[in-house]
Prior knowledge:
Elements: H1 2-28, E1 31-33, E2 38-42, E3 45-46, E4 49-53, E5 56-60, E6 69-72, E7 77-80, E8 89-93, E9 96-100, E10 109-113, E11 116-120, E12 129-133, E13 136-140, E14 149-153, E15 156-160, E16 169-173, E17 176-180, E18 189-193, E19 196-200, E20 206-207, E21 216-218, E22 246-248, E23 266-270, E24 273-276, E25 286-289, E26 295-297, E27 315-321, E28 327-338, E29 341-353
Amino acid sequence: xxxxxxxxxxxxxLTVAAISTVSSxxxxxxxxxxxxxxxxxEGDSYSTGWRSIGNTWYYFDSTGYMKTGWINDxxxxxxxxxSGAMKTGWVLDGSTWYYTNxSGAMKTGWVLDGSTWYYTNxSGAMxxxxxxxxxxxxxxxxxGAMKTGWVxxxGTWYFTSxSGAMxxxVIEIDGKVYYLAxxGAMxxxxxxxxxxxxxxxxxxxxxxxxxxxxxxxxxxxGVNVTPSxxxxxxxxxxxxxxxxxxxxxxxxxxxxxxxxxxxxxxxYLGNNKYSAHATNGIFKFKVIPxxxxxxxxxxxxxxxxxxxxxxNKYGYSIDTNYASDKTITIKEVVRQxxxxxxxxxxxxxxxxxxx
Length: 355
C-alpha cells in the first residue's frame, strides 16, 4: 500500500513539472536578432511560415528568419514592409503601385477599390493611360483611376461608356450627335460617313441640316440611354424679318464672327431689327432683334440656321445697347470641359456699330 501511494506522489510531481515546462516555453518566446536578421523564438525552436504576433502578420522562412519585401508562400504574393509587417491595400514599392486584398494577397487584373476601378498587370503593377483588355480600350488617369464619359488625352477627346470601354462610330451624348473615328478620336469639320458628308462643329457635335443617325446613345457620364430622336435640323425656330433662329447663350457653333470694317456689319431693317454680315460669308445674313440681350444667333457656313441647344457648343453672346451708344457687342464663348468640370470663357469680342 505504501508503494502504491509513493507511485501516485511521484506521478503527480512529474505532471506538475511537465506543465511548468510548457508554460516556460510560451513565456520564453521572443524576437531575436543576429547579423543575418530577425527570428522569433518558440521555446527551444523558432517560428516558420506565417505567424500573427501582436495582431500583425509576419512571415518566417524555413530557417526561421523574418522576411521583408515581396514574399511568395506558394499560393500568392504578399508584401512585408521593413519591419516585416504584412501590408494590405495599396502598396508603393519604388515608384510602382500594387494592390493587396484584406488577406494580403497581391491582385492582378481589374481591382475595385471603393467605387473606383483600377487595372494591374500580370506582375501586379498598377497601369495608367490606355489599356487594351479583351478587345476593348480603357483609359486610366495618372492616379490609376478608370475614367468614364469624356476623356481628354493630350488634347484629343474620346468617349468611354459607364463600363469604361472606349466608343467609336456615330453616337449620341446628352442629345447631341458625335462621330468618333476607329481609334476613338472625336472628329470635327467635314467627315464622310458611308459616302455621305456631314459637318461637325469644333466642339464635336453634328451641325447643319443633315445629322447622322447614332448607333448608341449615352448620358455624359457614359450611361446607356434611349436615343432622343431630336437630331433633325429641319424644325428650326424662325424669327420675324429674316428667317433666322436664335438660341440661348449656352449654345455653341464652330463659326467665328468677324465685323466688316467695323461699320458695314449691321443694316437697319425696321421694327427694331438689324441684319448682320461678316467676312468670308461665314456669318452672312442674320436678323438681330435689338431688344433681346445676351442671346445667341447661330448660322452655318452657308448662312443657314443651325438648330442647336444645350451645352457642348460654341456660341455668341449678343449684348445690345442700341438705345444709348448704338452698338452691339458679340462675344465668342467657348465651353471648356476638363476633369475639373465645366466653365465658359470669352475668347473673342467684337463691337458692331449700328449705322
